[in-house]
Amino acid sequence: MPEFFRLIFDEWFLKEQQVAFRLSLQSYDKQARELFGRDFVKCSASEQMKLLTEWDKQGSNPYASPPHPFGEFKRLTLHGYYTSQVGQNEELKTTMDGAEDNPNGPVMYGIAGMF
User: Fold this and answer.
1) Is the dihedral of CA 45, 48, 50, 55 positive or negative?
2) Taking the domains of the chain in order of start, what are their residue ranges?
3) If the chain, 115 residues long, is cut into consecutive pieces of 10 residues, what is the mean pLDDT of each piece?
4) φ, ψ dihedrals at 95, nearest 5°
5) What is the CA radius of gyration of the chain?
6) Distance (Å, rounded) from C-alpha 92 to C-alpha 74?
């Protein structure tokens, strides 16, 4: 998964988005230090959960402009997972029949009720 984020960050994010994302990571450590006296990674599991819950609440609006960085990170995580081989084949149980000549694209099987 880190390769996915590196690719998105380096090749899809605009320079302004890269700067904003880096600043948001710094702000998360700042918030952790203000609340618990240490960087996020050094907080206890319960302290981290308290912070993550708050950030998740702040980032839950997909239409916010600009988007909340934690919400963006969460959406990218889901996108990366569900477009990966594991997400597609093992969780979603999709298979694509690449050998079929279909003008409407490949037929997808295994997602009940969608196709």
Assistant:
1) negative
2) 7-64
3) 80 88 88 96 97 91 81 86 85 68 58 47
4) -135, 145
5) 19
6) 19
